[in-house]
Design a protein that fits this description.
By secondary structure, this protein is α+β, with helices and mostly antiparallel strands. The chain is 34% helix and 18% strand. The protein contains 14 helices and 13 strands. It starts with 11 loop residues before the first strand and ends with a helix.
Length: 416
């Protein structure tokens, strides 16, 4: 009889005397490389055992492997209330947190499917446009002139460049957002009041501090009702581009209310800030790119019969069918073989967790917690990591009963 290798005997995670939150000296043994389900009524301690004890201790121990310098930038984690934990492995938590409020994040960017599509289009699209960045709505087209320095073999070569163009796919009108802001001017101010009387209703514009001095420094009348402003004064207050002025010996920048609101609304990742500013800002589809986020050239090249935004708007099941039926011959087939397999694999991961109704252009901030969790799960399946512990929080929530079998098979594939 063959004696098992000592490394093969560590097949259990042992928890002894767990007392986190409402747990009362709970001791359990969990088999590794198996699917283990924790069930119970609300408040029975499932999350306290799985998340607050096992996963929390795994995370704490991993953090301790970093240098003291790096640990100084990490949150301090206390050891869970437990007598002994043995056999822990790295825990990857796939929870139901929303994917954030960044309006640039989509299903395609969150799963890296967009990155694969950009590579495919850079190789096969007709007519040929440029590198993968030429199809990215997050990369603007840039032009530069001057002296370019290039490091080659330990020496620096300098080249005079008259006009270098770095192609990006971002729509210049909406800056890759797919939407442009429409400001309700009547909600910005009460024109029966003066600036000093608090005519501006937008948060953050208090005339008692530097804003009052800025407005006065731009020559705006502080004691005149806004209804009596001249057209030039009203235009300055609402639309002035960033302008450097000196106020009481201090260099400051004045920016009109509307460009300031648009910049804050586009650039904020905070859901609370965006909800507050949405009282004054409404979004309409960009008239230049028709909501595709892409510049004109990137919208008109094709792989097969479809453009990039045509594919991005297809439900994931239809998008996979399109690539499975895409017919290529000769050198094109060789060039596209591996990248097409990668794209269809990523789409299949999403379909197998019940997300075949989504499309790649779907904004991440519109996804439910369950949809966000299954997207993270699909990404983990694609990563191919082994020997780790996945912790899932109610992965079937919001899932149609017919898709439960597919989800279960996906979890088994992840295990095996």
């Amino acid at each position: 009889m063959t004696t098992p290798h000592p490394a093969d005997t560590h097949d259990l995670i042992r928890v002894l005397g767990a007392r986190e939150n409402n747990l009362k000296d709970v001791s359990v043994e969990l088999p590794k490389r198996r699917l283990t389900v924790f069930t119970g009524v609300s408040g029975s301690g499932k999350s306290s055992l799985v998340f607050a004890t096992i996963a929390a201790e795994s995370k704490r121990m991993i953090n301790e492997t970093y240098s003291a310098f790096l640990q100084g930038f990490m949150p301090s984690l206390a050891r869970p209330e437990v007598d002994h934990l043995e056999g822990l492995t790295t825990a990857i938590i796939v929870d139901q947190e929303r994917m954030g409020a960044n309006p640039r994040s989509t299903v395609g960017t969150a799963t890296d499917a967009n990155a694969m599509l950009r590579i495919l289009f850079s190789r096969l699209a007709q007519p040929h446009l440029g590198p993968p960045t030429a199809y990215s709505f997050n990369v603007p087209t840039r032009k530069a002139s001057g002296v370019m320095s290039t490091d080659k073999g330990g020496r620096v070569e300098k080249t005079i460049v008259k006009q270098a163009v770095y192609l990006g796919g971002m729509c210049p009108r909406c800056e890759g957002m797919g939407q442009v802001s429409d400001i309700d001017r009547t909600a910005l101010y009460d024109d029966s009041k003066s600036l000093r009387e608090g005519a501006l209703t937008v948060p953050g514009y208090s005339m008692d501090g530097w804003y009052g001095r800025l407005f006065e420094g731009m020559g705006l009348p502080m004691d005149t009702p806004i209804a009596d402003f001249t057209a030039k004064q009203l235009d300055t207050m609402l639309f002035a581009p960033p302008t450097k002025i000196k106020v009481e010996g201090v260099n400051l920048t004045f920016e009109g209310i509307i460009p300031n609101l648009e910049r804050r609304y586009r650039g904020s990742d905070s859901q609370a800030v965006r909800e507050e500013l949405s009282k004054y800002v409404s979004n309409i589809s960009c008239p230049t790119c028709n909501g595709t986020r892409l510049r004109t050239e990137a919208r008109h090249v094709r792989v097969g019969e479809k453009t990039l935004h045509d594919i991005s708007r297809l439900p994931l099941g239809e998008a996979r069918n399109y690539f499975n039926c895409l017919t290529l011959a000769g050198p094109k087939a060789q060039v596209a073989d591996k990248i097409l397999k990668e794209i269809t694999a990523r789409l299949s991961f999403l379909i197998n967790v019940g997300l075949d109704y989504l499309c790649l252009e779907r904004s991440a901030d519109t996804l439910s917690g369950g949809e966000a969790q299954r997207i993270r799960l699909a990404s983990q399946i694609g990563s191919g990591l082994t020997g780790v512990m996945y912790v899932l929080d109610e992965p079937s929530i919001g899932l149609h009963q017919r898709d439960n079998d597919r989800l279960l098979q996906t979890l088994k594939n992840l295990r095996d």
